[in-house]
Design a protein that fits this description.
four-stranded antiparallel beta sheet, alpha+beta, 24% strand, 367 residues
């Protein structure tokens, strides 16, 4: 029976003491990884092959499986662990390097609770230049027949080279991108393409779907990790009202996708619309939100309202460097931003888009 009285603890001092010691020991075991679970790193000659899933690369893209080949029916995969381990990276050394970096990052990661608490209460100010974390899962396929999984969060700067090698490998591309599979089964009946302002740029009525997908697939195959640092022009959608699935959700067209862009130009797509620029004369208001400054009395952040008639130079500078927030989410790990954004109202109040600024961007009079 439980006794809801602290005096009850004194009745069983030895029992309470034993429980306290046991809890402390268990806590220390986890804190210092006494059994070397977290710090497990196989030797090179113990590894047959390695699979890696990088969560923050093309993070919006989902995995689907072909459930009905006759009717070309694809279904969403909620747990893709059985899929990614089938794709083996080209060089085991890259996987082991990611493992080493993940182990080095363990101690700071274990204090994540304190860092989050400090962030919430202002003891640790936001630093836009701080390194982003690279979140990934490694599956070591050992020569003894065992598969050993480990998950890590490590600095993108420390893991950049190994991550780039893995991303650019054919194995990772085959795991991450399923465009060829969708195309082969005729699963994509229609395509909608939107720019950073969420304006519809073209549909499958404007292009030949097979030719578009062929050009796009080639660009995916050739895409480099550095290309993901750029801001995509277009995000694609194949949303199906019947299944509620969007097979192409998360797929974007980047400035480096030369074959795709060349085909779109050939097809007569408005290339100016692809970049999603807002004509200055259509802007009616710009509001800048600086989250470094918080007014506790009103519970609001600092706001600066800009008038297109009076603040043209500042607004033009913002529009030159602003990144539509819609386009940051796909590879946010590679695009650190300032702790501020701005909202642009345009088209007589019928349009509005939030923009962010890359880390290190300085706008006189704003930050």
């Amino acid at each position: 029976m439980f006794e809801l009285d602290f005096r009850g603890l004194l009745k069983n001092v030895w029992q309470f003491g034993a429980a306290f010691v046991l809890a402390a020991v268990i806590s220390l075991i986890f804190q210092y990884d006494a059994f070397n679970y977290d710090r497990f790193l196989p030797k090179d000659d113990e590894v047959e092959s390695i699979s890696v899933k990088i969560d923050n690369v093309e993070q919006q893209i989902s995995r689907f499986e072909l459930a009905d080949e006759v009717n070309s029916k694809w279904e969403y995969v909620y747990d893709d662990s059985d899929y990614f381990k089938k794709y083996l990276i080209d060089n085991n050394a890259d996987g082991l390097e990611l493992g080493k970096c993940g182990i080095v990052a363990l101690n700071p990661t274990r204090n994540a609770f304190k860092r989050n608490r400090d962030m919430c209460f202002g003891e640790e100010p936001y630093d836009p230049s701080a390194e982003k974390n690279n979140s990934y899962v490694i599956c070591y396929h050992l020569k003894n027949g065992k598969d050993v999984y480990r998950s890590y969060n490590a600095s993108i700067n420390e893991t950049y080279e190994a991550t780039a090698h893995i991303y650019e490998s054919s194995a990772f591309k085959n795991y991450k991108y399923q465009v060829d599979d969708f195309k082969a089964t005729g699963a994509i009946k229609r395509i909608d393409a939107y720019n950073g302002l969420s304006d519809l740029v073209f549909t499958s009525q404007d292009v030949e779907t097979d030719r578009f997908l062929a050009a796009y697939s080639q660009d995916l195959e050739n895409r480099k990790f550095d290309d993901l640092k750029e801001i995509p022009y277009i995000y694609l959608s194949t949303y199906d009202n019947k299944t509620y699935y969007d097979l192409m959700y998360g797929y974007c067209i980047y400035p480096s996708d030369k074959n795709t862009l060349a085909y779109l130009k050939e097809a007569g797509v408005d290339m100016d619309k692809i970049e999603g620029k807002i004509p200055y004369e259509e802007i009616t208001k710009v509001t800048v939100y600086n989250y470094d400054y918080f007014d506790e009395a009103t519970g609001t952040t600092e706001e600066t309202v800009l008038d297109p008639a009076k603040d043209k130079a500042t607004i033009q500078k913002l529009m030159e460097v602003g990144i539509p927030q819609q386009m940051i989410n796909y590879n946010s790990m590679l695009i650190p931003t300032e702790n501020m954004d701005f909202y642009v109202e345009y088209r007589a109040g019928n349009g509005g888009t939030y923009f962010s600024l890359r880390a290190g961007t300085v706008i006189p009079g704003i930050n």
